[in-house]
Write a structure and sequence with these properties.
Layout (H helix, E strand, L loop, with lengths): L28 E2 L12 E5 L7 H9 L4 E8 L6 E9 L2 H11 L3 E2 L2 E2 L1 E4 L11 E5 L7 H8 L5 E8 L6 E9 L2 H11 L12 E4 L10 H15 L3 H5 L48 H13 L4 H4 L7 H13 L20 H12 L14 E6 L7 H8 L5 E8 L5 E9 L2 H11 L3 E2 L2 E2 L1 E4 L8
Antiparallel strand pairs: 1-9, 2-4, 2-7, 3-4, 5-6, 8-10, 8-11, 9-10, 12-14, 12-17, 13-14, 15-16
This protein binds 2 DNA strands through strand 3, strand 4, strand 6, strand 9 and strand 12.
Keywords: Repeat, RNA-binding
GO molecular function: mRNA 3'-UTR binding; poly(A) binding; poly(U) RNA binding; single-stranded RNA binding
Family: Belongs to the RRM elav family.
DNA sequence: CGACGGGACGC
DNA sequence: CGACGGGACGC
């Protein structure tokens, strides 16, 4: 994964005008954000959320843009598992617009979320997804859509492709805006032969993913196995129970809030790899353990400093971010940004050494009370830093519990902030990946918050 | 590249 | 150059 790619929301999709869906020759999916919603300019639908992300985490992320009226993560009625999408209704239209601009295309853990206007609630929406088979292997998504477009507004479409070869499997999905549009499409197209083709296509309503997924019970195990290949559990080093298993999100408990007033309790631990036991003192996370873990992670190919030759630079992303903010900032005033777009690059090894030095005598810091999570101290921020930027930077590595930017009397950032993340490993990875990077011409410093004052 | 329709505003 | 919050705990 290139670092340049880390912070690249789809800024091209700023919905100031209807989005033209673009296609490449090999594209097999289509999921353009809604733009031309006539009403409901405050209500957003969020798709492709990471599996473990909770409603409160979604709320926290989107509240960084502005006041929200409601937030609903849609979950399986029986298991409570997130279905990976939800709704965020803002108080103000301009905040909803900024949320689309800022967060559509944002990479969260292993997902790229989609943020678009929710269609007005309508009983015709449900069950309008079609399963199409018999698609000629050479047919493009664009061609498939052109067959279905006469029957209504297509919300999403996709042609499945072979994981290995990347070639079309000849089956796909077309989701219409309304069920009766899907109905007519079935009646007209099922058993038909598209022009220029030789075989019939089959068109029917798609199954509910939850009801036909035999791998459902395996997904947790697969996730654990996948995690085991990319991250070294702390227990390997410490002989201690594993913390929550890694990025990516797994079971419904994965991001369960830590309710203990005291130390971390591994209530969300993955049963396959850990035993819930006593609490884990913060001083368990010694410097040597951190360094060993760093080395082991480097062996696993996880540590970006192990392979990267240059420190990533978020200047371009920052400018894009600021442009977004400026584009809609008229009512929000007080934006006196002057982005110093210097392109300073620092050697990765130097940054790593710096990290080691800063981590000395520093243990993972658990906030004292109600704000559960592992708290990172983020320094060398420019005076115009805002919450959303930090959300975008850090949420790539996992769930953020809280972002706190310290400001002076004129609301200028005092140069530092605290970012609390619910998962230790994710916070650690954020530190490894972001410390020493360039943000707005400054070398960002990210370390676990010290439990004692800096000059103690 | 992945799962786009909840809940409500009374029954 | 410089370098770690705030609310609320309740004696």
């Amino acid at each position: 994964m290139t670092m340049e790619a880390l912070l690249t929301p789809n800024n091209n999709n700023v919905p100031t005008s209807p989005v033209q869906t673009t296609y490449t020759s090999t594209q097999r999916y289509c999921s353009a954000p809604n733009v031309d919603i006539g009403e409901s300019k405050t209500n957003l639908i969020i798709n492709y959320l990471p599996q473990g992300m909770t409603q409160e985490e979604v709320r926290s992320l989107f509240t960084s843009i502005g006041e929200i009226e409601s937030c609903k993560l849609v979950r399986d009625k029986v298991t409570g598992q997130s279905l990976g999408y939800g709704f965020v209704n803002y108080v103000r239209e301009e905040d909803a617009l900024r949320a689309v601009s800022s967060f559509n295309g944002l990479r969260l853990q292993n997902k790229t979320i989609k943020v678009s206007y929710a269609r007005p609630s309508n009983d015709q929406i449900k069950g309008s997804n079609l399963y199409v088979s018999g698609i000629p292997k050479s047919m493009t998504l664009h061609e498939l859509e052109s067959i279905f477009r006469p029957f209504g507004q297509i919300i999403t479409s996709r042609i499945l492709s072979d994981n290995v070869t990347g070639l079309s499997k000849g089956v796909g999905f077309v989701r219409f805006d309304k069920k009766d549009e899907a109905d007519v499409a079935i009646k007209t197209l099922n058993g038909s032969i598209p022009s220029g083709c030789s075989e019939q296509i089959t068109v029917k309503f798609a199954n509910n993913p939850a009801s036909n997924n035999p791998k459902g019970l395996l997904s947790d195990l697969e996730a654990v196995q996948q995690a085991a290949t990319t991250l070294v559990p702390l227990s390997t080093i410490l002989g201690a129970p594993t913390l929550r298993a890694t990025a990516g999100g797994i079971g419904p408990m994965h991001h369960a809030p830590i309710t203990s007033k005291y130390r971390y309790s591994p209530m969300g631990a993955i049963t396959a790899v850990s035993q819930p036991t006593a609490t884990l003192p913060a001083d368990y996370l010694t410097t040597s353990a951190l360094l060993q873990m760093s080395q082991l992670n480097a062996l696993a190919g996880l540590n970006p400093f192990a392979t990267a030759t240059a420190v990533p630079d978020f200047t371009a992303s920052l400018i894009a971010h600021q442009q977004q903010q400026h584009a809609v900032a008229q009512q929000h005033a007080a934006q006196t940004a002057s982005p110093p777009a210097t392109n300073g690059q620092v050697a990765g090894l130097a940054a790593h050494a710096q990290l080691s030095a800063l981590s000395a005598s520093v243990a993972a810091t658990l906030p004292p009370s109600d704000t559960a999570g592992y708290c990172l101290f983020v320094y060398n921020l420019s005076s115009d830093t805002d919450d959303t930027l930090l959300w975008q930077l850090f949420s790539q590595f996992g769930a953020i519990v809280n972002v706190k930017i310290l400001r002076d009397l004129t609301q200028q950032c005092k140069g530092y902030a605290f970012v609390s993340m619910s998962n230790y490993t994710e916070a650690y990875n954020a530190m490894l990946s972001l410390n020493g990077t360039n943000l707005a011409g400054k070398t960002l410093q990210v370390v676990f918050k010290s439990s004692t004052p800096y000059r103690a």
